[in-house]
Amino acid sequence: MKKTKSSSVYYPPLSIIKAYLLVSGLLLNSFVWGGNTSNEVEFNLLQTLLEIKNDSLIVNEKEDSLQLEDPGSTAIPIAFGINRDNKGITYSIQRLDNPHGGLETNFVNLLTGKIAGLQVSRTASGTGGSPAVRIRGVNNFIGYTQPLYVVDGMPITNMEHSSGGVNSGDNDYGSSIDDINPWDIKSITVIKGLNATAFYGQRANNGVILITTKTGNNTDGFSVELNSSLSFEQVSLSPQFQNKYSTGYEGTNLYGNLKEIDGVLYETLNNWLIDSWGPPLDGRRIVVDPFVYPEDKNTRTLALLPQPANNVKNFYETGITNSNYVAITRNIRKTNARFSFGNSSNTGIVPNHKNEKQMINLRVHTQLFRKLSFDIKANYIHSEGNNRPALGIDSDNLVKVFSSMGRYVPLPWLQKYYGKTGESGKWPGIKYNPYYIINALKNNNNRDRFIGYGTISYDITNWLKLTGRYGSDSFKEKRKNTWPVGAKGTSNGKGEISNVALDVKEQNIDILMNINKKISKSFSCDISIGFNRLNQKMENEYFLSRFAESPYNGIFDTLRSNQSIYEQKTLSLYLAAQLGFKDYLFLDFLGRKEKGEDLKNNKSSFFSPSAGVSLILTDAFNINSNILNYWKLRASYTKSIIRKDLQHILLIPTAENKDIFIESWEMGSEVILLKNRLSFDITYYKSLPTNLATHISVNSNSGYSTFVKYDGKIENKGMEISLNLSPISSPKGFNWDINANYSHNYSKAVELAPDIESLVISSDVTPNRIEVRRGLPYGSIVGYAYRKNPDGQRIVNKNGSYERESKPTILGNINPDWIGGLNNTLSYKGFSLNFLIDFVQGGELSSTTKYQMTALGTAKFTEEGRRTQDTDDDGNQLPYVGVLPGVVEIKDTEGNVVGYAPNTNAVSGQDYWAQRAWNKIGEEFILDASYIMLREIMLSYNFQPSVLKKTPFRRLTINLFGRNLWYIKEQMEDLGISPESAPNTSAWAQGLEVFSLPPTRTFGASINVSF
């Protein structure tokens, strides 16, 4: 195996070689022999190359007689009013049909591990948070990296948690793409490259996810569909705490005062004491009990003993998600209509966290006359969230509270105290009462959204069609945070209320002319000429009020407000022309001209061209083989413009104004073998974003804060492989289908601004930071490494602690080496079992949770190197036992290092562990982000029509499912964190972990009924 840069990650070249040999052998057989060899020879070749049993690939006589559908004839919607047969698509796409709506409330999470080149991960906020989506790397240094979402041909707005969650606390209010009802989705198509920019403009630079919703087209008469699901979410990984040592330091003094109780002096525990390097929790140390009501102060004693090891895990609750959905379809003559209503309710693992959503959707299509048709859609969504968990390093983040909590702190007492007093209280060993956080610190958001359009189409001739559409996507959202008087993090504990009001509107006017004509016996053309007018407007109002005395007397001593307005108008004209030759050679020419104007009358204009070719070799060479059924080659080129940020604040006015553009090339091959029993798609791509903005800080005396140079350049290149295999296929018996995908992307920062070697894109909160460095892969994790001798052994200083290097160095990279997924479906008659495993191999992250738990001595691994007893039976202090693995320097009289000797110096627990954090040795907090996860299991039973014959049901399916079930392999060192939990959805954030909620697994059941 070939080893990659990450020590625990390996490429699987053997399997790729096998696949290559298989394809080469089959194609050679088809070309040389014309595909006329015997089935026995063909199957023996397949068996040898794949090393699988012969009986799993037998094609029986009935299957041989089946008439296969042309694999390239599938019509795929790629833009408003534009469909393409798979044969004529010149770039990489991948489609997921009929996703199960009950598995996730946000359909984006269903794509995890199923699409080559697409990585989906949850953010640190857990349930109801924004999923982070990345397709083929990044196209800028610090800007927006999420794909464009298009529903039934209309782009929609997706606001998400794209910043925050790091240095300051905030809440993830979810992504607005969550408003799409998963039960309404018919198919999801992912366009991975830049080719969609010709249809959707520069917003599609990060790829496009096309959602096609269900209609009433395929329903005869009247039909009702009911879907209901219920699932339970539980913590799957929780932090492993040390449960042996108290707060304090490895000495006999707890830094408290002596208080007399019943004639005996006992030591107190100071409220400021938080570091857990103190005496053993063995009951020998008796102190004044701090966990009493004020009137009982200094009246009780407390033996220092540990709390239950799983007390933090038990703090979290079982989350419950219930979703219900009904759809009614009616088809009368030339009119079909579909009305659906859905609602979902979700409680998270954090107490009092709840999300609710109601969705109404109406779709009507009518053929008024033979040539005139209407298509109308109206979709209304109301969603609300309460008490979403706080993120970042602020004091109200529960994970931060628990990661620093002394192991003797009784959580039941803190709950009882808050219930009686309504206050947080101050306690030794804990920074903030968690029950005060979840009950007194409140936040709420509610959103009302309308998505709708009206389309009219007129068939001028049988080859010429004119279509017009008006579409609107608008929502209003309100967010409110309340901190009572006395809450930490507010000015002088006075308490405060913040309100945010968002008003977002997007309007699209489209006119499209389609020409689809057979020019001659050999030539055909499919031409689309479109016009689009896009109006975007977003208003953001922010108010902050601080109380003078009480939140109930209506008196404020501070009022702050801020308002921002963003407005953009864009006019576009685009052309999509495809020329076909004998239905096996297709040439694509795409182009879009955009003119934009913002609120300040800043204008921009740019043109995005694209060209591609598709060749169906099996048709071109008339290959008629029992093995090779379909072989397609494709290639494309695209150039796109990235719209500049026209809202820069405090920029030096002489900043240059270059166009920011991306060039992209890709080529690929699709092969179908053995009558659809085996198929694969291989794509190689390369993109080059150029003239990217590099923000350079300048002296504030100039009156400006930042100078922008447009000289940055990133190179993305990679490979994607998707494979479908049916080792066992029987129309009336047992079937086994395998879907696998593999992708590798390499993002390299080719250029920055002149004289700039690195660009910091995140702060050193962990204490590492993430940078873009010239000539190196995007997303270098930079911090201080351990100082080592030539043999790689860590150097210990004279005080017995590790030393660090004098300058920061690159400690890792945030990007994985490769990602993949393996999905198996086993079916027998009405039963079906599906399980999905997804892989992320390589890449690193910097963990703030480990940083804090190492500094404070709360992690399980900090038990190493500490005394089991601090004193003997006579009260004499015992010697330290922790000797750090490593070497000490041997120096001559002049101070020159002449050799190294094993370290033998025993040190205290805080010197053994905490000094690594206190000295900010960032290498200690780098974790391998590789993982293998059992992502999904679903067992279904679909009742046979013969069973339902005497019932009112047309279809009845029962499903049992599990999601995010088990990290088969992960490298998170028992910290109770997930390698997927970034603080926000920005590309650089995948390299940070900042007090993220523990990962969860979900179990549930659903029922699908139609009649």
Question: What do these coordinates show?
Answer:
With 1011 residues, the protein is mainly β. The chain has twelve helices and 46 strands. The longest helix has 21 residues, at 13-33. The two termini are 55 Å apart.
Can you describe this structure in just a few lines?
This protein is mainly β. Helices cover 10% and strands 45% of the residues.
Per-chain topology:
Elements: H1 13-33, H2 39-50, H3 61-64, E1 75-79, E2 82-85, E3 93-97, E4 118-121, E5 132-135, E6 148-151, E7 154-156, E8 185-191, H4 197-200, E9 208-213, E10 221-235, E11 258-261, E12 264-267, E13 286-288, E14 301-303, H5 311-315, E15 319-332, E16 335-347, E17 354-367, E18 372-386, H6 398-404, H7 411-421, H8 434-440, E19 442-459, E20 464-483, E21 496-518, E22 523-547, E23 556-581, E24 585-598, E25 603-616, H9 617-620, E26 628-642, E27 660-673, E28 678-697, E29 706-728, E30 734-751, E31 758-760, E32 769-773, E33 780-783, E34 809-813, E35 818-828, E36 831-841, E37 844-847, H10 848-856, E38 882-883, E39 887-891, E40 897-902, E41 906-907, H11 909-918, E42 926-928, E43 931-942, H12 945-948, E44 955-970, E45 992-993, E46 1000-1010
Parallel strand pairs: 6-9, 37-45
Antiparallel strand pairs: 1-2, 3-8, 4-5, 6-7, 8-9, 10-15, 10-46, 11-12, 13-14, 15-16, 16-17, 17-18, 18-19, 19-20, 20-21, 21-22, 22-23, 23-24, 24-25, 25-26, 26-27, 27-28, 28-29, 29-30, 30-35, 31-32, 32-33, 33-34, 35-36, 36-43, 37-42, 38-41, 39-40, 43-44, 44-46
Helix pairs in contact: 1-2, 6-10, 10-11
